[in-house]
């Protein structure tokens, strides 16, 4: 993304969209102290869990722009949450990336609402 060196590691991109089962006994280790002191590896790879304790999130909820594909005519494959893992439309080099229009529309709407609520 944006010229940054990327590292390949297990479970890459999983942590971009996570639903935690806060009632699961193993997740009780995630105290503020642990989260603030553990490495990125530990947290992004869910190293406190065994593989069988990690469920799936449908790809449409962690849609990797440039990797996942929506199927024309099949609305069930359209993204619900987009991970702009190559760089998003807020970067000049990615102004025309896939789904850039959605992000730019949301930003424009946010700016309008912010301006309206501040009285300007």
UniProtKB/TrEMBL annotation:
User: Which InterPro entries does this UniProt record tie to the protein?
Assistant: Nucleotide-diphossugar_trans (IPR029044)
What protein name is recorded for this chain?
A: Uncharacterized protein
Q: Which organism is it from?
A: Linum trigynum
């Amino acid at each position: 993304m944006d010229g940054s060196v990327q590292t390949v590691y297990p479970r890459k991109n999983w942590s971009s969209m996570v639903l935690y089962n806060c009632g699961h006994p193993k997740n009780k280790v995630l105290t503020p102290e642990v989260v603030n002191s553990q490495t990125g590896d530990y947290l992004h790879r869910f190293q406190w869990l065994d593989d069988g304790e990690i469920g799936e999130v449908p790809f449409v909820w962690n849609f990797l722009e440039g990797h996942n594909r929506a199927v024309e005519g099949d609305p069930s494959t359209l993204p619900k949450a987009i991970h702009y893992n190559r760089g998003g439309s807020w970067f000049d080099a990615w102004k025309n990336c896939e789904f850039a229009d959605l992000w730019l529309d949301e930003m424009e709407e946010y700016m309008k609402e912010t301006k309206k609520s501040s009285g300007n």
